[in-house]
Amino acid sequence: MSDAADDAQDFETNRRAAALADAAVSEPGPGPIFIDGVAHCAECEAVIPEARLKALPGVGLCVACAEERESER
Ligand SMILES: [Zn+2]
Protein backbone atom coordinates (compact mmCIF):
# COMPACT_ATOMS: atom_id res chain seq x y z
CA MET A 1 0.00 0.00 0.00
CA SER A 2 2.81 2.37 0.80
CA ASP A 3 4.34 1.55 -2.60
CA ALA A 4 1.22 2.78 -4.35
CA ALA A 5 1.33 5.96 -2.31
CA ASP A 6 4.97 6.46 -3.22
CA ASP A 7 4.19 5.94 -6.90
CA ALA A 8 1.39 8.47 -6.72
CA GLN A 9 3.71 10.95 -5.07
CA ASP A 10 6.39 10.40 -7.71
CA PHE A 11 3.82 10.92 -10.44
CA GLU A 12 2.62 14.12 -8.81
CA THR A 13 6.19 15.38 -8.41
CA ASN A 14 7.09 14.62 -12.02
CA ARG A 15 3.95 16.25 -13.35
CA ARG A 16 4.61 19.36 -11.30
CA ALA A 17 8.20 19.54 -12.54
CA ALA A 18 6.99 19.20 -16.13
CA ALA A 19 4.42 21.94 -15.61
CA LEU A 20 7.07 24.21 -14.13
CA ALA A 21 9.38 23.49 -17.06
CA ASP A 22 6.60 24.40 -19.48
CA ALA A 23 5.96 27.63 -17.62
CA ALA A 24 9.65 28.49 -17.76
CA VAL A 25 9.66 28.00 -21.53
CA SER A 26 6.49 29.97 -22.18
CA GLU A 27 7.70 32.90 -20.14
CA PRO A 28 11.37 33.48 -20.92
CA GLY A 29 13.42 36.10 -19.19
CA PRO A 30 15.92 36.32 -16.41
CA GLY A 31 14.87 35.42 -12.91
CA PRO A 32 15.85 37.52 -9.95
CA ILE A 33 19.37 37.52 -8.57
CA PHE A 34 19.46 35.94 -5.14
CA ILE A 35 21.84 37.53 -2.67
CA ASP A 36 21.79 35.97 0.80
CA GLY A 37 18.44 34.41 -0.06
CA VAL A 38 16.90 37.76 -0.96
CA ALA A 39 15.66 38.32 -4.51
CA HIS A 40 17.16 41.31 -6.28
CA CYS A 41 16.19 42.89 -9.59
CA ALA A 42 18.16 41.40 -12.49
CA GLU A 43 18.47 44.86 -14.02
CA CYS A 44 19.25 47.35 -11.26
CA GLU A 45 19.83 44.94 -8.35
CA ALA A 46 17.24 46.63 -6.17
CA VAL A 47 15.56 44.33 -3.65
CA ILE A 48 12.32 42.93 -5.05
CA PRO A 49 9.60 43.26 -2.39
CA GLU A 50 8.25 39.98 -1.09
CA ALA A 51 4.69 41.03 -1.97
CA ARG A 52 5.74 41.38 -5.60
CA LEU A 53 7.40 37.97 -5.59
CA LYS A 54 4.24 36.44 -4.16
CA ALA A 55 2.06 38.14 -6.76
CA LEU A 56 4.42 37.25 -9.63
CA PRO A 57 6.41 34.13 -8.71
CA GLY A 58 9.78 34.05 -10.44
CA VAL A 59 9.61 37.69 -11.47
CA GLY A 60 13.13 38.94 -12.14
CA LEU A 61 12.63 42.69 -12.25
CA CYS A 62 11.65 45.31 -9.72
CA VAL A 63 8.56 47.43 -10.34
CA ALA A 64 10.51 50.32 -11.85
CA CYS A 65 12.44 48.13 -14.32
CA ALA A 66 9.32 46.14 -15.25
CA GLU A 67 7.45 49.37 -16.01
CA GLU A 68 10.37 50.67 -18.03
CA ARG A 69 10.43 47.46 -20.04
CA GLU A 70 6.66 47.64 -20.59
CA SER A 71 6.90 51.21 -21.88
CA GLU A 72 9.60 50.22 -24.37
CA ARG A 73 7.18 47.96 -26.22
ZN1 LIG B 1 15.17 47.13 -11.18
Describe the protein's architecture and organization.
- The structure is a single chain.
- The chain has 73 residues and is mainly alpha-helical.
- It folds into two domains: 1-28; 31-73, no CATH class.
- Helices cover 56% and strands 8% of the residues.
- The protein is built from three helices and two strands.
- It has helices spanning 2-26, 50-55, 63-72, and strands at 33-35, 38-40.
- A two-stranded antiparallel ribbon has the order 1-2.
- It binds zinc ion (ZN).
- The site of zinc ion (ZN) has 8 residues, from helix 3.
TL;DR of this structure?
The protein has helices at residues 2-26, 50-55, 63-72; strands at 33-35, 38-40. It is mainly α and 73 residues long.
Write the layout of secondary structure elements.
Layout: H1 2-26, E1 33-35, E2 38-40, H2 50-55, H3 63-72
Bound molecules: zinc ion.
Principal-axis shape equals: elongated
Determine the number of helices (DSSP H or I, runs of at least 4 residues).
3
The main sheet comes to: 2 strands, antiparallel
The ordered H/E elements are: HEEHH
Radius of gyration: 17 Å
What integer is the average pLDDT? 83
Small molecules (ligands, ions, cofactors) in the structure:
zinc ion
Tell me the total number of β-strands.
2
Strand content: 5-15%
Briefly note the structural class of the backbone.
mainly alpha
Q: Cα distance, first to last residue?
A: 55 Å
Helix content: 55-70%
Number of domains: 2
List segments where confidence is low: pLDDT < 50 over at least 5 consecutive residues: none
- Across the major sheet, the strand order is 1-2
